[in-house]
Amino acid sequence: MTLRPVALAAALIAASIPLAAPALAQDAIDRKVDALLKQMTLQEKVGQLHQLSGAEATGPEAAKRASQNTEIRAGNVGSMLNIKGAKDTREAQALALQSRLKIPLLFGLDVIHGYKTVFPVPIGEAASWDLEAIEQSAQVAAREAAAAGIHWTFAPMVDIGRDPRWGRVMEGAGEDTYLGSKIAAARVRGFQGPKLGATDRVMATAKHFAAYGAAVAGRDYNAVDMSLQQLYEVYLPPFKASVDAGVATFMNSFNTLNGVPATGSAFLQRDILKGAWKYKGFVVSDWASVKEMVLHGYAKDLPDAAVKAINAGSDMDMEGEAYIAHLAQAVKDGRVAQKHVDDAVRRILRKKFEMGLFDDPYRFSDAQREQAVLADPRHRAIARDVARKSLVLLKNDKLNGNAILPLAKNAKSIAVIGPLADSRRDLEGGWVVSDVRGEVVSILDGIRNHAQGAQISHAAACAPGCATAEGFDAAVAAAGKADVIVLAVGETWDMSGEAKSRTDIGLPGQQTELFRRLKATGKPVVAVLFAGRPMIFNEIADNADAILYAWFPGSEGGNAVADVLFGDYNPSAKLPATFPRNLGQIPISYAQYNTGRPVTSEKDIVYRSAYIDSPNTPRYAFGHGKSYTEFGYSGVQLDRTILRPGQTATLSFELQNKGKVAGTEIAQLYIRDTVASVVRPVKELKGFTKVHLQPGERRRVTFTIDRDTLSFFNGDLKWGAEPGEFKLMVGSASDDIRLETTLHLQ
Ligand code: NOJ
Fold first, then answer.
1. In the record, which residues are listed under signal peptide (predicted)?
2. Shortest-distance Cα residue to atom 1 of ligand 1
3. 207: Cβ below 6 Å to ligand 1?
4. Which domains does the chain have, with CATH numbers?
């Protein structure tokens, strides 16, 4: 099947003719904001800083809903989350328009990997290293959500994650700050478009500010303790990239950072974000994170928490009980300066103007548009394209001289086995928020769609989670009759994401035993693994004949997986995170330090920085991912060996498709600063490029290196490059460097 997603996306934009917000210059908006602010009472100002989670109008929440409605009419609510659909948002907006100043509400929602059309989970999309595809995915999600009355998504999550025990690695772009920064910007562009206010885009949120991904022991919400150098160098850049891409809002985070809750951190929010970075958007707290400062032991009670959060620069209180109840009094008592409240309100009102809500508060809540957009079949094609680009081929052994994958379309018989083989909900992954979701194509459906002549048998063997082995005998019997076994195993959708930290990141339940039994049939086993995180699956890694890591691939997951299994799409994805061999290696990243006692060979580990019971190397390295073809790297050239101030250097090399099928390689550039005032990682990703080549085709590929490429935060947290020698490495993965050269910075 031929998909032209770029053309599709272009058509989609042209066809939708989004309504742009009437263009108002920034200073005209500022004047309107100031004029409105002058009319507002202190209570109305505090109301703008209050965000509520919508309650159901009927059933057990009816009373809560009624009281929310009263608050909205009274002008005590600035924004709502978890309310969606043109009808419901319109109704809520109508209440806000009954308030004295008729200030419209902002509707926010966690549109993380799609609204109606579900895309691969973010870590899966990150594996595509395809900024265009990632931007398109966010664009479609925005288009659908915006048609359902949503103004604002709480995405992208740009937290770096180097600990796969932490369930929220699913929502990010992996372990690397360079790749993470590029993806952060692409997602912001996709959600927001070139300018806020179009009715087919939404405001984005860079979250969670900051360092949430470094929770001690990978336990969600846990404390974070890290050097400022590490913070500046690894954890902050994706946030800065989001600011540079124009992200409308920030969300702070649940964790403490070096002893101070992020929500109460003036260092993060005032000094860095609104100070050094001159950020003009607003900061929303995470869910009740203002209130949680009491439990952290940082605020003595709720009023104290409100004071500390607003003074630190936290503008909006999500599902907050703190600001609305205590802020006005705190201003009267002089514990909070009026200017802090005014600044927060200004930032929020500015976004409401930029979104065009003062001109037409209902512009996003249009039931007819909602129906048309949510029925648009082109979204599925884009979802399938992104999904297949996210599937990582980890292993593909040969049998009688032939690679196991791709499978022949005229294969006689295929057994599709495993608890996730015909599961639909699991393929969608964690963050699905719309109840009008489209159908999900299971792996079994996808295989049936592709291999129509084959005899396809199916057995789940066990339910998702695979607690018992009761169905194994029947599954093994069915598998024994087939030519090849496709085994679909992994986490269920609810095993990664928020509050889903695991101390065992192996295959849940008895799935490894199922694999063992199937392998014993002597038939080749192709393992398709699903998860929202890197898992540990050594037995499968050692003994499966082929392995495809599918993450949670979304609505079109089954078709995308089958596209790869049958060779309609040659896999191109690369791991955005290191896959450890064992839990003891965590946290783990390719960008490690050399130490004074590096391991130079697996045999020489005594008094080295090593383990006595495991190699240091991961199971699969960052950047790893196979293709159905082979790529050759040769002829590295550097146009200058000395880089002087103001100059750039161009590194080039020849990439060749040495195989028999067309394929796409993601070539990666790493550097190492060999001597510096603070030690530098042995490898740092500084560039990548996706190149599609026909069989036999060669192309010269270039990377540009400037002073910025070689810069880092020194011991005084100053960004800059230090003269000296830099190793430049080009390769197919962080552990598969093919070419090296040296550059000297003067
Ligand atoms: C808590 C999560 O940490 C955050 O990412 C999310 O946006 C909010 N809840 C709202 O649902």
1. 1-25
2. 287
3. yes
4. 389-584 (3.40.50.1700), 631-745 (2.60.40.10)
